[in-house]
Amino acid sequence: MKEECCICKAPLAYLETDELMECAICHKKENSKTRCVNGHFVCNECHMEGLDAVTLLCLNESSKNPAEIIRKLMSQPFCHMHGPEHHVMTGSALLTAYKNAGGDLDLQPALLEMMRRGKSVPGGTCGFWGACGAGISAGIFVSIISKSTPLSEKPFGLSNLMTAKALEQIGTVGGPRCCKRDSYLSILAAIDFTAAHFNIQMEKPEIVCRHAAQNNQCIGSRCPFAAVNQ
């Protein structure tokens, strides 16, 4: 089996209703719809263990290419094939590239805020909420650089439009889930959006997937980043 359960690598099972489950790592109990077929449940907090390293990694990054930045983050031990860590990494890569491309941003507090907000978006939102966390992360990116609040006018609109643009790309490709694919789609949408609305041009690369061999649900040639499509 390719990577699925963090404990035993068995396939995941998604339940119709929440059940009270005990995390196999920290033993905290919480309601969830997700466990592996062998019964293991890992809470979001444990799944994201080590994610705080993102801030330091991004502060030491000079690239203007958010796809390159997130590829480096994806190679770190804290990143799994799928998981809520992507809800932080997508926005963090965008904030870092935006700053390096000339954006007016105090990067360290922005990354800490991205961490706080992104961590609150749980795993499985793509299927259970109808809003992929990577797409939401792109919206959080815009909300941070535009200093949006619920009482803002233009920043409020821009951050929601950014999420909508990212989710449109994700929804057009369809499922099943792939956190890598959806992160890349969100980043590409955000590069164009940022150039159009903030006059900051991040680098926009051609992306070829390097993760298909680890993804049990890979959609193959239907993925815009499949090697056969390049």
Strand and helix map with partners:
Layout: E1 12-22, E2 29-36, H1 44-47, H2 53-59, H3 66-74, H4 86-100, H5 107-119, H6 125-128, H7 133-145, H8 154-173, H9 179-198
Antiparallel strand pairs: 1-2
Helix pairs in contact: 2-4, 2-5, 3-4, 3-9, 4-5, 4-7, 4-9, 5-7, 7-8, 7-9, 8-9
Could you explain the architecture of this structure?
The structure is a single chain. This protein is mainly alpha-helical and about 230 residues long. The chain is built from nine helices and two strands. The protein has helices at about 45, 55-60, 65-75, 85-100, 105-120, 125-130, 135-145, 155-175, 180-200; strands at about 10-20, 30-35. Strands 1-2 form a two-stranded antiparallel ribbon. A hairpin with a 6-residue loop joins strand 1 and strand 2 (about 30-35). The protein is globular, with a radius of gyration of 17 Å.
Keywords:
46% helix, 9 helices, 230 residues, mainly alpha
Shape descriptor: globular
- Give the neighbour order of strands across the main sheet: 1-2
Q: What's the Cα radius of gyration?
A: 17 Å
Counting H and I runs of at least 4 residues, what is the number of helices? 9
Instruction: Please estimate the helix content.
Output: 40-55%
How many strands?
2
In short:
By secondary structure, the chain is mainly alpha-helical. It has helices at residues 44-47, 53-59, 66-74, 86-100, 107-119, 125-128, 133-145, 154-173, 179-198, and strands at residues 12-22, 29-36. A hairpin with a 6-residue loop joins strand 1 and strand 2 (29-36).
